[in-house]
Design brief:
The complex is a heterodimer.
Chain A lengths: L2 H28 L15 E9 L1 H6 L4 H7 E11 L5 E4 L11 E4 L4 H33 L6
Antiparallel strand pairs in A: 1-2, 3-4
Helix pairs in contact in A: 1-4
Chain B lengths: L5 H7 L3 H6 L5 H6 L6 H27 L6 H33 L4
Helix pairs in contact in B: 4-5
Classes of the chains: A alpha+beta, B mainly alpha.
Chain lengths: ~150, ~110
């Protein structure tokens, strides 16, 4: 396999990770007012946790060797999707079917504004990974120009 | 890939005519000369790898069309990999053909 394919795969892992993050943010926005969930109570905001991936066999074999380190790099993956432990919001709405005796409803701990910021963040990260990918492409194209027009 | 490109350098160096004449050999003839890794084999291997990349890209496109692959970027990256290895193989081939023509033009 070509060496540059590894670089492409690293960028691809970044793209995949950001896609998964987009799913989570979309779910948070979609469920911003969901009062019922499988675990009971309202929807709980989810967050993604990223983890670096590397081929530990190569990595450990020559830790001080730069080549071994870059060879071991595999990009990023989603380590987990964790629930946000912050408390739910209480809003007063006696007409809501899920309201308690005092007329208060427990709403998800999702702040749509915050989700929008995360969304922009995910979008920009995705674009950054595409830029890195395109840079890899131009590296290869530049390398193929060696010896041309000499 | 970097290693497999070395023989190109060799063509221009020590024994150009002998090296280039091997390009025209059939694989059976090539097996007889076990002195060095044969250029024919290297080129064939590179072509097979390129072919595998093409198949992979095609498979990714099929999977995507069938709805089994969820990420568009995976399809495009496979296609890009295929295009990249094809360009590289073509470049190597062009170099060989150039070298061959250069030798054929030689006044004896």
């Amino acid at each position: 396999m070509l060496d540059v394919f590894r670089t492409l795969n690293i960028s691809a892992s970044g793209l995949t990770a950001q896609r998964a993050r987009l799913d989570v943010i979309a779910s948070n926005i979609a469920n911003a007012e969901t009062t019922r969930s499988d675990e009971g109570g309202p929807y709980r905001r989810k967050t993604v946790v990223f983890r670096e991936v590397y081929e530990s066999a190569i990595h450990d074999a020559g830790y001080r060797n730069v080549r071994a380190q870059t060879d071991a790099m595999r990009g990023v993956e989603i380590a987990a999707i964790e629930a946000d432990k912050r408390p739910f919001r209480w809003i007063y709405d006696p007409s809501h079917p899920d309201a308690n005796e005092e007329g208060y409803v427990q709403m998800p701990n999702v702040n749509v504004l915050r989700e929008m910021v995360d969304l922009i963040n995910a979008q920009r990260s995705y674009e950054a990974n595409v830029t890195a990918l395109n840079a890899t492409k131009s590296f290869v194209n530049a390398a193929l120009q060696i010896g041309k027009g000499g | 890939m970097a290693q497999s490109m070395d023989p190109i350098g060799k063509i221009g160096s020590a024994n150009p005519i002998q090296r280039v004449s091997r390009v025209g050999q059939t694989p059976r003839q090539a097996e007889k000369s076990e002195i060095e890794p044969d250029f024919m084999k290297i080129l064939q291997q590179a072509l097979e790898e390129t072919n595998a990349d093409q198949y992979e890209a095609e498979r990714a496109a099929d999977e995507f069309a069938a709805g089994r692959l969820s990420n568009i970027h995976d399809v495009l990256i496979s296609a890009e990999k295929a295009a990249m290895s094809l360009r590289l193989t073509l470049e190597v081939r062009n170099k060989i053909v150039d070298a061959y023509r250069e030798i054929m033009r030689m006044q004896l």
